[in-house]
Amino acid sequence: MLRTSHWSAIPAPIGENTTTEQLHLLQERRNESVGDAVWLSVWMPSSGSSGVAAIELFDIDDKSESVTVQLMTKKSDEADSGESEIGSLDIAGDASAGIYKFPVSEAQYLVRYRVNPTKGIKRLHFQFIQPLWAPN
Q1: Running DSSP on this structure, what letter comes out for residue 11?
Q2: With CB atoms 3.0 to 4.6 Å apart as the test, which of 64, 89, 124, 129 could cross-link to 54 if both were Cys?
Q3: So what's the pLDDT on residue 36?
Q4: Which residue, among 7, 98, 87, has the nearest Cα to 53 in the 3D structure?
Q5: Domain spanning 4-128, CATH class
Q6: What distance lies between CA 35 and its chain's CA centroid?
Q7: What are the pLDDT digits (tens) for 37-79?
Q8: How far apart are CA 39 and CA 128, in angstroms?
Q9: Rounded to an integer, what distance in angstroms lies between the CA atom of residue 5 and that of residue 84?
């Protein structure tokens, strides 16, 4: 059985980088102009060094645009700026609803998702699926 986590983007407080928004648990929708937004999930502990990450896509409003989903990692004592990519996936705007998986490797102690929609997307409806880790 796949375990899912629901996320939604919440605007950053005024005075902070408003093009980077934190995704929070227990919600799943984002319905407003995306622009240059970058959405980040909360940091989660990894349960292994390699595995499979996934996103469930429900809808992208502009079929000519695309979305890049990345899984980022870092050590627990590193600043967020020390993160590195351990897997990614490009989803075309004309993709049908469904689950899209991608392999990840070399995870450190913490992981998080990063979603980079292209500028033309006004609405994106998705949810992350908790990564499945291979035993060490």
Answers
A1: P
A2: 129
A3: 65
A4: 87
A5: mainly beta
A6: 16
A7: 778 888 999 989 999 999 988 888 778 888 899 999 999 999 9
A8: 12
A9: 22
